């Protein structure tokens, strides 16, 4: 079955399920959403100019709408992500099934990137195969006039590609070897830039399988990710400056592995705030995360921790009260010494409910929350994560 999408301005169904979102500090933002249209699934990209209070649908070429379609009753409905470097230059990226493959047939997907340079009025497909990109694009972001993407190179390795924001002239960047995991969940990728520095990671729930940082000469060199010495869990740091980074590490990671000489106070499966003041060369534990009386059991999401400002950190955790369970977002404003719940989902039988969270500025945050096995909603914060409320998309 081929999914179709509403045309720009369509009101086929005002309530859609966002699966990816991105906002600029100005409050301009975009979502990739899916919603049921009579007997099939509709895909749309929507734009807001006011922090999500109102939205308009952007026109999409038929082949992009087809790439973005996934038919099923599970979340997410689609596998595409969206990112904008500014109001004009943006990308939709992820994976697509080969032409002619049906929903009932397993096929190896292809890496997929579409670009726009006019704010989403028109979109162009990147020939990922000619660049050596395979299977999926795991991460994409921009820095100082360039856009970067992590994709597969082979069955066992991943690579980094870059282009200027406006040219669509992509080339592969030399990095240390980025290996794929031998097992576990789907591979994930992360790109972090701040000032003249950059960091990248690939891995999955089993741990980090490849990482690198950008040197002062602009070369990507080997790097030990923040949790490397305490289990090597895949937890992506947040940079508040070119030299200051924060992360939250689960001690022991997936396999309970600790490097020789690990301090005894770092208890297995506890969570700690780790800080670096030397651009990620070294990280040190500063605060034990204690939420609901324990330091265990944080949601393991690639987008968390998130941080709108130095000393302020957002994490997620499912909390049981009697017969009900809710997924919560917890915030600290003192570097991890004290935490308070700033958002609680409706009671649910599937967890984690919180799928993604990020901050566009020190005040504006946004997150995607799963509401049923097949639907989701966007929630936003306008006060640095202290409170959250739903925005209809």
Would you write up a description of this structure?
3% of the residues lie in helices and 46% in strands. With 393 residues, the protein is mainly β. The strands form 7 sheets. Strands 1-2-3-4 form a 4-stranded antiparallel beta sheet, with no helix packed on it. It has a 4-stranded antiparallel beta sheet with strand order 5-6-7-8, with no helix packed on it. The two termini are 25 Å apart. The longest helix is centred in the N-terminal third of the chain and has 6 residues, at 62-67.
Kindly summarize this structure in a few lines.
This protein has 393 residues and is mainly beta. The protein is built from 2 helices and 28 strands.
Encode the helix/strand succession as letters: EEEEHEEEEHEEEEEEEEEEEEEEEEEEEE
Shape: globular
Mean pLDDT: 88
Helix content: under 10%
Strand arrangement in the largest pleated sheet: 1-2-3-4
Low-confidence stretches: 1-14, 100-105
Major sheet description: 4 strands, antiparallel
Cα-to-Cα separation, first versus last residue:
25 Å
**How many helices does DSSP assign?**
2
Instruction: Count the E strands.
Output: 28
Proportion of beta-strand residues: over 45%
Q: From the helix content, strand content and strand pairing, which structural class follows?
A: mainly beta
Q: For the CA atoms, what is the radius of gyration? A: 20 Å
